[in-house]
Write the structure tokens for this entry.
Amino acid sequence: MTYRTILSTAALALALMISPVAGNAQDQTVKIAAEGAYAPWNFTEGGTLKGFDIDLANDLCARAKLTCEIIPQAWDGIIPGLNAGKYDAIMAAMGITAKRREAIEFSIPYARARNGFFVSKNSDLAKLPGTGESFNLAGNTDAAKAEIDKMRPLLQGKVIGVQTSSTNASFLDTYFKGVVEVREYKTSEEAELDLLSDRVDAIVQSNISLATTKKNPKFEAYEIFGPTFFGGPFGTGVGIGLRKDDVKLKETFDKAIEAAVSDGTVARLAKKWFEVDVTPIAQK
């Protein structure tokens, strides 16, 4: 039985209002979907899901006294699967965006990353301006737009790889439509392999995920060039995806996230998996 329950009687509704978490923990299992192919956020090793999302999901469930089961789900069907009732929540480094909010609800943010162009040091894209700078696409938009305008001439006609249905794809569609050719992949690993094979000129990805990619000796000659971006198409942070009518579950996870941020658990897990702090408080 999943967390999503149709309340058929007023008595049952009253019981859940009185003790929502305790009742769920005793006789319900919350199924959480993770992609399992986006290290170090979430990945599969030896048939087991691991990563920041997985550790944090286990922590949040323990805090909320929820019995949880974390299951793998391909990224390209992860939102439809949630709304179809295959599982009750998504923890898969999913950015909170206005477009996604049309289909699902989100918890409060539990992390925030920055995203940029990953290219070979020998590429002409290594000359992209703004390397080392970061811009909030929802904040100082004039500065961000000016920097993007500087990037367009170098990116004209380039083939850029992104994971399908990702905020990176939305970013390119918003700011570089008609400038670059976008090639979408089911997983970020597939995009990275085509970068190595020179089938794409660059990939756009999270600086956190790319930090892990850089540990692979095959990517020694690759770096993020140009500025990194957050906000705007990238959303307001990373959150737990939920069905719109699962109000109680959202409240439960929101409280657990607030506690995990306040007591340093999110920062501790971020250091373990990313080597940088990704808590929303640290990156407002």
The first helix runs from residue 10 to 18. The first strand starts at residue 29 and ends at 34. The CA atoms of residues 115 and 206 lie 4 Å apart.
